[in-house]
Specification:
The protein has about 400 residues and is mainly α. Helix 10 runs parallel beside helix 14. The longest helix is centred in the middle third of the chain and has 59 residues.
């Protein structure tokens, strides 16, 4: 990293990270925007909540399956241009969603939105990893996460508020315009940023990169872990509004606030990671994080008031990113030459978990009930933290230059 780019008061991190964080913010606005609106969407199109929750699943599934292509394209043709184009696609998809006249058409626009969103976050992580060394990478990734968490926070909370006044169509229209404007702003910011791009790779080098990734002993553990995280934690979100409805709380704004608590916890993680990491270490972060998540899943199972559930999700978000941030660093170190590919695969497995999660929760809620389903997820998360802490080790990538 050039010395002129360092800012001592920000842990020596380059200013280009602010541009990357802005891109993450713009993409994250739409990720959870429909969650608090699902009861009204289901009512308008006369479908069940479980069917409407398919929006979360299809968005996550599309996001997931596009990841290997996005990673390869980013390593072959350049990262920033692809990121900006994907932001524009996401914005157009949101506007088309606002104009949808049928459930199937709205469903199709969420597929397109998943494709657009899928190109932003993993590339942002890859650029972040290239700008800083491993010793500062978790802190730098925390800054990029801050942008995404702020987007998640505003996307979930503002969508509930806007939805109460303009309906779910107004939410998608506003988000679409904001994301298109953001893509223009980010394009201008990247033109002015002095980011050192690695040489473009070839198809043969890309094949070598895949081989390097999957021969690393950390890869199967890391990718399996993020799949389970996505299933057990993010798979819960489409049902939060429904849980609140069962308690008699039908305001979309309240549902948005509760879901946004998770993003607040993520922001708290970004502010505390530089102090927690030296004290707990990577293994301690993973164990403590998953235990925090498990405790809050159990708490939500008892159906407390929405104010308490908001605090539950704040703590859950904090714990989740304590563990997830460690896994992101491990993924960034699977390969040097194919880093975008490694991180896109990380996102692929994470969002495949989010695809399976709502379906698994729906099955569990229908056949086992709320309590047993959430208790089972809590137990899985505790085991996950212990296994990751035991098996994941710091290893130099096989293609790292001496």
């Amino acid at each position: 990293m050039p010395q002129g780019e360092a800012r001592p008061h920000d842990h020596g991190l380059p200013p280009a990270l602010y541009v990357i964080s802005g891109a993450s913010f713009a993409a994250a606005l739409s990720a959870r925007a429909l969650d608090p609106l699902l009861p009204h969407i289901a009512e308008d199109f006369q479908v069940s909540i479980a069917t409407a929750a398919g929006f979360a699943a299809v968005f996550a599934f599309t996001f997931a399956i596009i990841q290997p292509l996005i990673g390869a394209a980013a390593d072959l043709f350049g990262k920033t241009r692809l990121m900006i184009g994907c932001l524009a696609v996401l914005g157009v998809a949101s506007i088309l969603g606002a104009l949808s006249t049928s459930f199937s058409l709205l469903f199709a626009t969420r597929i397109l939105a998943g494709i657009g969103s899928g190109g932003v976050f993993p590339i942002a992580l890859s650029l972040t990893s290239e700008l800083v060394g491993p010793e500062k990478r978790q802190i730098a990734i925390g800054r990029t996460l801050a942008g995404a968490m702020t987007g998640n926070l505003l996307g979930a909370s503002a969508s509930g508020l806007i939805g109460d006044f303009l309906g779910w169509r107004g939410v998608l229209a506003v988000l679409g315009v904001l994301v298109i404007v953001a893509s223009i702003a980010v394009a201008a910011g990247f033109r002015g940023a002095k980011i050192k791009h690695p040489p473009k790779t070839s198809l043969s080098a890309l094949k070598t990169g895949y081989r390097t990734i999957f021969t690393n002993p950390n890869a199967p553990v890391c990718y399996s872990a993020v799949f389970i995280e996505g299933c057990c934690v993010l798979g819960l979100f489409p049902y939060v509004a429904s849980f609140l409805f069962d308690l008699g709380e039908t305001s979309l704004s309240v549902a948005g606030i509760v879901i946004a608590g998770f993003a607040v916890g993520g922001l708290f993680y970004t502010m505390t990671v530089s102090r927690l990491l030296p004290r707990l270490g990577v293994r301690g972060m993973m164990i403590a994080g998953t235990i925090l998540v498990a405790s809050q899943l159990v708490a939500v199972a008892f159906g407390p008031r929405w104010e308490i559930q908001t605090l539950n999700l704040v703590v859950m978000g904090w714990g989740f990113y304590m563990a997830h941030g460690c896994l992101q660093v491990f993924a960034s170190e699977l390969s040097v030459e194919a880093r975008a590919t490694a991180l896109s695969l990380h996102s692929f497995f994470f969002f495949m978990g989010q695809t399976v999660g709502p379906l698994a929760y729906g099955f569990g809620l229908a056949h086992g009930g709320k309590g047993p389903t959430l208790f089972a997820s809590a137990g899985i998360m505790v085991v996950l933290g212990l296994v990751c802490a035991r098996l994941l080790r710091q290893r130099a990538p096989a293609d790292a230059r001496a």
